[in-house]
Amino acid sequence: MTDVNDSAARAKLDTITAKYQSEREKRLRPDGTAQYRDFSGIFEDFDRDPYADPNFAREAIITETEVAIIGAGIGGLMAAARLAQQGVTDVRIVDKAGDFGGTWYWNRYPGAACDIESYIYMPMLEETGYIPSEKYAKAPEIFTHCQRIAEKFNLYPKALFQTLVQEVRWQDGSGRWEVSTNRGDKIHAKFLIIAGGILHKAKLPGIPGVESFKGKSFHSSRWDYSYTGGSPTERMDKLADKKVAILGTGATSVQIIPRLAETVEQLYVLQRTPSTVGERANRPTDPEWAKSLQPGWQTERVENFTRIVAGQPAGEDMVNDGFSKIFGNNPNALALSTDEERLLDLEAMEGVRARIESIVTDPATADALKPWYNQMCKRPCFHDEYLPAFNRANVKLLDTAGKGVERITENSVVVDGVEYPVDCIIYGSGFETGTSYKSKLGIEIYGRGGVSMTDAWVDGPATLHGMLARGFPNLLIFDQVQGGVAINFAHLMTELANHASWLIAHCLDRGIAEIEPKAEAQEAWFHTLIGRLGAQAMFFAQCTPGYFNGEGNLNVTPATMRMVPYFGPLMDFVQILRDWRADASLAGIDVKQSTTGNGA
Asked: Do 441 and 415 belong to one domain?
């Protein structure tokens, strides 16, 4: 490490810091997250499911159940599986998709894979007796594993797929949640779990003229293989004579671009902000290593990674990947409180930029691909084929200098006044974050007295542990709002499933009819969150715009402040939940016993 007291190092740190600031300012927009629009009413098939039977039909279901779960992704899947392990099997799961999997059902784009090691990302490996085929599993393998979990716990008979929830409403008289769907279903549940996903609703940038384009266009999470040909594992043979534009250079596009580059006649990569792209070094699973694993190995490995990427002591780095190396080198990479930490970050980013120079042969392209921000301002990417793709004659980077695409015409994209005719536009523009549940899920949640969550939270969310909310009895929410945050989302979802399943089983066992947090417990939790803000919040506030910081929106209101997550290490948040369960007194909860004594 270079000595921060060295005058040359100090000068370089000051220069690069100023460069980061100027690049950030280029990308600031007054509309913040409002730059993205809901195009479901403009593009008729924008949210169409390309993988499900369009002629699917069934009779409406009117039923009572102990637990209704909205969402069949990893969160909902793990909740149902953990409930089954607790002996709670009277469950209904509702999802608009055609199967379990969540993001791994929808994201079937070419090259899709998890950026977290599969041995710690894919849940319940020990319970299912499965070992992933490689360190970073591809999407089809993860999707199949989600199905494997569902089959093991007999969840398919409990699932209502291709079904869109339209409203959930608490019934004061019966003490049940009524879940209404587009297929006429009325599901009356004692407990309701909302597990709609952290990155669930696809977003599109509000580029002038976007709706006028007459060619083919789709979001990456609704990949249209009928147009491109091929499959997640086969070449897209129908693109050989096509000019294609892909919008975005984030984690999704980093995986897609190499696959498009090997197929299309011409590929235009539309970039607003470059990603950091480190070495991936994927490899097949060593069978001898797999044979050596002892019971409890996955939990140990998961928690080892989670501690390391939070800068906590963890001993041996079991995963030893790009994420753990970042934090192994600089434990405070998510805060950078000292000049020494900032210098470590600078040296790491110099390595990222040098790697680009060593791989991309055209100097102008290489320069445009260099990221100018601190390493953890955006989720780092790792890929071994992305940068080499820009050396192909049929790939052209259209860098917008932080401004975004100027406009779209009937047959072209326009960047810096130049029209580029294209046959197809692919939107790798990500997913909605930091918005209300009504916006993300497309439904309103009505609690006690018919009060909507939108109205109840007009001054910001109020929860206990990010999961329970006063005025919404027996509702359990899986999200990061006032809850934990994680680099490994599957770990967070698993811990939330552990908590929710224990709580529901505890109530059923003890004849508890209703639970909701006390107002003072919610306020105490909020003060716990505020107490953990510190340097990490300041770090993100100074970052280049992105979904981590509301696209650089610094207009912090009391309501938006209440959306803050638990910024401490995830394992600290997990320990809070574990300690709360161990106490078993339901501290901070108003409890209503069942009049029948058995929770019915």
From this structure: no
Is residue 308 domain-resident? Answer: no
**Integer Cα distance of 384 and 521 in angstroms:** 48
Q: What's at 585, amino acid-wise?
A: S
DSSP label at 415? Answer: E
**194/259 same-domain check:** no
Closest alpha carbon to 589 in 494, 512, 493:
512
Find out whether 269 and 246 touch, Cβ atoms under 8 Å. yes
Residue among 356, 357, 282 nearest 321 (CA): 282
**d(Cα 198, Cα 489) in Å, to the nearest integer?**
9
pTM confidence score = 0.93
Percent of the chain with pLDDT over 90: 79
Task: Specify whether 196 is located in the same domain as 206.
Answer: no
For residue 396, what are the contacts with CB-CB under 8 A and spacing of at least 6?
A: 266, 267, 268, 269
**Residues 423-470: pLDDT tens digits?**
999 999 765 555 556 666 778 999 999 999 999 999 999 999 999 999
In sequence order, what DSSP letters do the residues of 151-212 get, joined into one string?
HHTT-GGGEE-S--EEEEEEETTTTEEEEEETT--EEEEEEEEE---SS-SB-EE--TTGGG
Number of folded domains in the chain? 2
- What's the rounded Cα separation, in Å, for the pair 306 and 314? 9
Q: What is the 3-state secondary structure (H, E, C) of 370-385?
A: CCCCCCCCCCCEECCC
Residue 125 to residue 144: CA distance in whole angstroms: 12
Give 556's contacts (C-beta < 8 A, 6+ positions apart). none
φ/ψ of 490, rounded to 5, equals: -65, -35
Closest CA to 176 of 557, 582, 514, 546: 514
Structure tokens at 507: 């109530």
- As given in the structure block, the two tokens for residue 318 are 């079991």
- Helix, strand, or coil (residue 281): coil
Whether 484 and 554 map to the same domain: the answer is: yes
Listed residue (456, 454, 489) closest to 471, CA to CA: 456
Q: Does 36 have pLDDT greater than 80?
A: no
Of 386, 410, 427, the residue that ends a domain is 427
- Helix (H) or strand (E) run with residue 92 in it: strand 91-94
| 28 within domain boundaries | yes
* CATH classification at residue 498: 3.50.50.60
CA distance linking residue 495 with residue 479, whole number of Å: 12
Residues ≥6 apart with Cβ < 8 Å to 517 = 463, 464, 468, 469, 470, 588, 589, 590
CA distance 310 to 313: 9
d(CA 28, CA 32): 8
Residue 162 belongs to domain spanning: 62-201+433-593
Q: DSSP letters of 50-71? A: TTS-TT------EEEEEEEEE-
510 and 500 within one domain: yes
